[in-house]
Amino acid sequence: MSRxxxxxxxxxxxxDAELIARRLExxxxxxxxxxxxxxxxxxxALQHGGxxxxxxxxxxxxxxGLEVLQLAKRVAPDIPFLIVSGVIGEExxxxxxxxxxxxxxxxxxxxRLAPAVRRALDEAGLRRHTKSLGDQLTRAQKLEIFGELxxxxxxxxxxxxTIIMAxxxxxxxxxxxxxxxxxxxxxxxxxxxxxxxxTRQLLIFSRDRGRDATVLDLNGVAKNAESMLLRLLPENVxxxxxxxxxxxxxxxxxxxxxxxxxxxxxxxxxxxxSHGTIRVKTGSVKKGGKNFVxxxxxxxxxxMTREVKARLFEPFFTTKPEGSGTGLGLxxxxxxVQSMHGRITVESNTKSGTRFRVFLPMAEGAEFSxxxxxxxxxxxxxxxxxxxxxxxxxxxxxxxxxxxxLGYEVLQASNGMEGLxxxxxxxxxxxxxxxxxxxxxxxxxxxxxxxxxxxxxDLRVLYTxxxxxxxxxxxxxxxxxxxxxxxxxxxxxxxxxxxxxxxSAK
Length: 506
Ligand SMILES: Nc1ncnc2c1ncn2[C@@H]1O[C@H](COP(=O)(O)OP(=O)(O)OP(=O)(O)O)[C@@H](O)[C@H]1O
Ligand SMILES: [Mg+2]
Prior knowledge:
The structure is a single chain. The chain folds into 4 domains: 5-126, Rossmann fold (3-Layer(aba) Sandwich); 141-205; 214-361, Histidine kinase-like ATPase, C-terminal domain (Heat Shock Protein 90), CATH 3.30.565.10; 385-501, Rossmann fold (3-Layer(aba) Sandwich), CATH 3.40.50.2300. It is 45% helix and 20% strand. The protein has helices spanning 14-26, 39-48, 65-75, 90-98, 113-175, 180-202, 218-232, 254-271, 306-311, 329-339, 393-405, 416-425, 445-455, 469-474, 491-501, and strands spanning 5-10, 31-36, 53-56, 81-85, 103-106, 214-217, 237-242, 249-252, 276-287, 290-299, 343-349, 353-361, 385-389, 409-413, 433-437, 460-465, 484-486. The longest helix is centred in the first third of the chain and has 63 residues, at 113-175. The structure holds adenosine-5'-triphosphate and magnesium ion.
């Protein structure tokens, strides 16, 4: 049976009140009625809350009906207000409707009451729903704008990060390992790597977000994330990470797994009000004949009520105060886990806390990808002729200087047109490799290299890009990850990629 309708009834005549209550009951309405007989009592009850609908007699001694209505609309504007009166002149009725009354019913026509109450409640429900849709839409629009902005700056931002990373790499190489300054330079590089992760997180709602699914060891991801997670936790919260022995192979984007882990740990942190412990645990299980790897995030915090548990994956559902939670954390987690063909589950109670579990299909018989393995900091030498086509001049200069120092012969172009011209001027001994930003001005990187390859079919190409796979693919060429060096990159990564493309190392 549905919940009783909570009615606040302003009526001084006890008999009338009983008559009205009985009439509602006879008409099949399940009501819980609180009667008040004064303006003051009425206001107190209304402010107290928990009222679905107001019935009010308009001809109470010492009490102006219109004034009561106006007060009610100020205190609880969304609650339907029905006038039930013995007499109400036409003028007063119109006046009351103008002032926000939902309807008026004469006491000698009580057959109209139940239908009027039903209609008023339906309309109020619809208004609430529309309003909440409107709120969600505004938030969704804000996020969309934010995503677009983030996507727009990502390219420039990644160029800057590449420059910082490359320079810190050069500093480290020049200073030699073990020195105090070397440590500072390596911290710059570490901070850049974190900033790069952050860009990826910011881009999660932008259309420009790409994925780099590779074979990863879940243990490795959790272990790497530990130091970052520790920085997010206050002193009163302890983090205990327990990794299963061996490695746990999974095909996924490292950023996606980190994102899920971070969101779950942040929620656990918010659920701990004084002291507490967050446990992160990895492992593997067999379910329905299939192997899964999993990670748990468990807290001994406040836990959740059944109502919260039922809604927690809904986008924009949050119990946190305005401004401190968007309610998108778990919706994002679920979306990401589903995109990895996995499952996320939750167990929670208000006594012992909460445990989230994320199951992902185990990658069987797969080799761990080297893409994300920390590249050796060694710079690899060579002597081939290379054309660098890059519109960010600082980045281009730095790459050129470094490659020249390593023995390469380097030509530079700031846009696609210039690249074509330079190539034409070096016909007798053309470059063997073009390093081209995908999004070059005038003539794009892909267009330029396509034209160059027509003239020199043996030409090798390495694309660089601050955008992501989807955007690159959107630029109109099939994407093979091997051809694109994602910004930000270190100079040693660049030289390793060059030597992979030009295997005849000198
Ligand atoms: N570990 C937890 N313990 C208790 N409640 C939780 C826990 N995790 C989530 N919740 C509940 O689920 C709600 C939704 O979580 P979600 O991560 O989607 O949004 P949020 O944390 O409120 O906001 P945001 O993640 O955008 O900052 C939270 O507001 C909270 O009520
Ligand atoms: Mg959250």
